[in-house]
Amino acid sequence: MRVIIRKTYEEISLLAAELVKSRIEKKDNFVLGLATGSSPLGLYSALINMNQKNLLSFKNVKTFNLDEYYGLRGDHPQSYRYFMDVNLFNHIDIDKSRTMVPDGTTKNLEDFCLWYEQQIKNSGGIDLQVLGIGSDGHIGFNEPGSPLSSRTRLIALDAQTIEDNSRFFKDKNQVPRFAITMGVGTILEAKEIILIASGKKKAQIIAKAIEGPITGLISASALQIHKRCTYFLDEDAASELNRIDYYRFVEEAEGTIGKEIF
Which residues are catalytic (predicted)? Predict the structure, then answer.
């Protein structure tokens, strides 16, 4: 695990975008795992800018999204398919048929979840997975108590998640109670992972996820065992880390031996 800390959200978003760009440029038919929510918006904005300036192409990229609200059609303004179209896909040169988001209206959940997992495998696995983190430490919609070996499935949303996400709906009662999500085990199979977090509200859970015990009660803590995971944090999100000086030292030391963070 590597922890990159910068003063502002804009700085970490640009750094994360440079990492994504470097990975896409190194491999044909790159498979990119994507997340929704506010955390990756700066990254997506930077990637759009790169694409529109002809610095990066997505023509040979395939994407898989982590999750989708169960019961929402893809054209619903609060669906994650709609979110991805509006905040990324509509603005880059990607083939929409190569952008995979779970189907929130599927009638056969078990078969669909098995199919989604198989599509990831058929594509060669996810090369790089982008993550945010919920206020209770969830990644995807893997709520507290999710097995660390879990696979893509339907999950009931925690009360805290419903409260957190209610800001996107007219009132809390409109927030779906279920979602389809990649499991923690599915996420951990990605070859590389980046997690972006910003703001004081994320500081306590970031400290627990990075420096606390590995537990199903904080699904992000499972990233501690991943061989290639990088956290991109602004100073506010990193403010409760006990080993913040060490993380800064490691990045500086890597620079002195010619090892770039990418």
Answer: 67, 136, 138, 143
